[in-house]
């Protein structure tokens, strides 16, 4: 028998090459290409002349079989999933080590097992005794959850096929599994791709919900080939800072619901607890009378969230002033600073700038531009924003402030938490009579700067 051919595969994107090279031409990453053995199988290299089977085609108006979602009982997890678990779906959950991925899934599977659902938890990183100890700490000692410690894909599939298909299966983690017909180490591109394909095929064939735990790289991306995220139905990222007790479960892909939906949890000694009102949690300890602080009314998925943005501006004599950003895009900060310099003449180019989003939340929507600008100007002028004021709006390169979506939802969330004023973009409907918030319209960035420098900039 001829020796299986070998190829060089990028560990970041999965692109194959005939020979080794330092840089991947697809993802532009360096030193990610390694030698991978091809999968040993009896499949022919080509389709040849053999005919295939006819595929049954259906029309769009045919009735859809009723497949209700399976509610986990953890409302924040169900929210991130779009309303619960869908039978036959494959879900990938990634996050930093120790962030709480295994704890969350163990709590969810334990809650389903207590409701009478048949659930299986396979751990490739811990012994069953370790999982049992964690379950006892989480108060799940009496949950009829089936545990297994195995890394062989063949043994896992044989175990699942030996009885009635369970409702849900957890694989912790996909990087620890190995297929014995692939001549490479666990965690490599070939192994991850083959193992994920077999588990997803089992989920579609049996109607079982498969939840895969994925390791992440130093950049925060799920390790292994990028094709893994394309294969599954839902991709969830578990975010958070170990210095904070808050955890954010964010959906970045969901074939059965909206993307960018979040669930908020708090890490405690007895596991993860849901946070039904994250705005109050993120604003805990907020001091409105301190310069350099602004409250941003944002939207995460379908949920309005209020979060504090903190800025510190200090004059610097260095040739290259420092820019430190936590929780926001550093490129976006550079743009806001450039607009403030060019359109308002603040002269921030020679200042050290430190920006922080309180609570460990990561913000990506452009509506935070004006809140960041307000915090920066407040820190520079040493004048705080008015009490009980929220700020939102998108900043353009010309210095204009553009309107954003879901203004009413942002204002209602602010009013619910006791805010009475809002700095908003123009061309928005005045809803202060219905919501109880006084709106101050900002048409240009100069209008914002004039609030802190009424007599002009010296």
From TrEMBL:
Alphabetized, the UniProt keywords read:
ATP-binding, DNA damage, DNA repair, DNA-binding, Hydrolase, Metal-binding, Nucleotide-binding, Stress response, Zinc, Zinc-finger
Check the record and name the PROSITE patterns matching this protein.
RECA_2
Could you identify this protein by its name?
Answer: DNA repair protein RadA
- From which lineage does this chain's organism come? Bacteria, Pseudomonadati, Pseudomonadota, Alphaproteobacteria, Kordiimonadales
What does the UniProt record say this protein does?
DNA-dependent ATPase involved in processing of recombination intermediates, plays a role in repairing DNA breaks. Stimulates the branch migration of RecA-mediated strand transfer reactions, allowing the 3' invading strand to extend heteroduplex DNA faster. Binds ssDNA in the presence of ADP but not other nucleotides, has ATPase activity that is stimulated by ssDNA and various branched DNA structures, but inhibited by SSB. Does not have RecA's homology-searching function.
Binding positions for ATP? 95-102
Q: Where is this motif: RadA KNRFG motif?
A: 253-257
The answer to whether keyword Electron transport applies is no
Q: What is known of its domains?
A: The middle region has homology to RecA with ATPase motifs including the RadA KNRFG motif, while the C-terminus is homologous to Lon protease.
**Plastid keyword on record:** no
The record's listing under Pfam families reads: AAA_25 (PF13481), ChlI (PF13541), Zn_ribbon_LapB (PF18073)
Ranges where the RecA family profile domain occurs: 66-216
The record's listing under HAMAP family reads: RadA_bact (MF_01498)
Q: Which family does it belong to?
A: Belongs to the RecA family. RadA subfamily.
- Region Lon-protease-like: which residues? 352-458
Q: Which InterPro entries match?
A: AAA+_ATPase, DNA_repair_RadA, P-loop_NTPase, RecA_ATP-bd, Ribosomal_Su5_D2-typ_SF, Ribsml_uS5_D2-typ_fold_subgr, Rubredoxin_2
**CDD domains for the chain:** RadA_SMS_N
Domain of life according to the entry:
Bacteria
Name of encoding gene? radA
């Amino acid at each position: 028998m001829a020796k299986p051919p070998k190829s060089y595969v990028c560990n970041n994107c999965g692109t194959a090459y005939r020979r080794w090279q330092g840089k991947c031409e697809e993802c532009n990453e360096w030193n990610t290409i390694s030698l991978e053995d091809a999968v040993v199988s009896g499949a022919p290299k080509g389709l040849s002349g053999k005919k295939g089977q006819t595929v049954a085609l259906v029309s769009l108006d045919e009735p859809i079989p009723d497949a209700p979602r399976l509610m986990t009982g953890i409302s924040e997890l169900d929210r991130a999933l779009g309303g619960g678990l869908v039978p036959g779906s494959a879900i990938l959950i990634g996050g930093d080590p120790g962030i709480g991925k295994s704890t969350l899934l163990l709590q969810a599977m334990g809650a389903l097992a207590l409701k009478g659902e048949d659930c299986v938890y396979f751990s490739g990183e811990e012994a069953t005794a370790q999982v049992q100890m964690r379950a006892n700490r989480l108060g799940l000692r009496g949950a009829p959850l089936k545990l297994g410690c195995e890394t062989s894909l063949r043994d896992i599939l044989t175990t699942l096929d030996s009885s009635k298909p369970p409702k849900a299966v957890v694989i912790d983690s996909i990087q620890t599994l190995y297929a014995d017909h692939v001549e490479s180490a666990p965690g490599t591109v070939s192994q991850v791709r083959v193992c994920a394909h077999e588990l997803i095929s089992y989920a579609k064939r049996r109607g079982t919900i498969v939840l895969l735990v994925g390791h992440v790289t130093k950049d925060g991306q799920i390790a292994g080939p990028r094709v893994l995220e394309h294969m599954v139905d839902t991709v969830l990222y578990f975010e958070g800072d170990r210095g904070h007790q808050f955890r954010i479960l964010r959906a970045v892909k969901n074939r059965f619901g909206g993307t960018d939906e979040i669930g908020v949890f708090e890490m405690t000694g007895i596991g993860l607890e849901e946070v039904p009102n994250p705005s109050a949690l993120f604003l805990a300890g907020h001091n409105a009378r301190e310069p350099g602080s602004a409250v941003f009314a944002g939207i995460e998925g379908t949920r309005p969230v209020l979060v504090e943005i903190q800025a510190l501006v200090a004059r610097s004599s260095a040739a290259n002033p420092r820019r430190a950003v936590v929780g926001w895009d550093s490129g976006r900060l550079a743009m806001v600073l450039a607009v403030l310099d060019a359109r308002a003449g603040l002269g921030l180019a020679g200042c050290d700038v430190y920006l922080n989003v309180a609570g460990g939340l990561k913000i990506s929507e452009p509506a935070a531009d004006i809140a960041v600008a307000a915090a920066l100007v407040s820190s520079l002028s040493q004048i705080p924003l008015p009490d009980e004021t929220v700020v939102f709006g998108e900043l353009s390169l010309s210095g204009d402030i553009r309107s954003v979506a879901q203004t009413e939802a942002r204002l209602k969330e602010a009013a619910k938490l006791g805010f009475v004023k809002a700095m908003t973009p123009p061309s928005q409907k005045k809803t202060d009579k219905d919501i109880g918030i006084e709106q101050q319209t900002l048409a240009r960035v100069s209008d914002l700067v004039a609030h802190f420098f009424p007599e002009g900039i010296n």
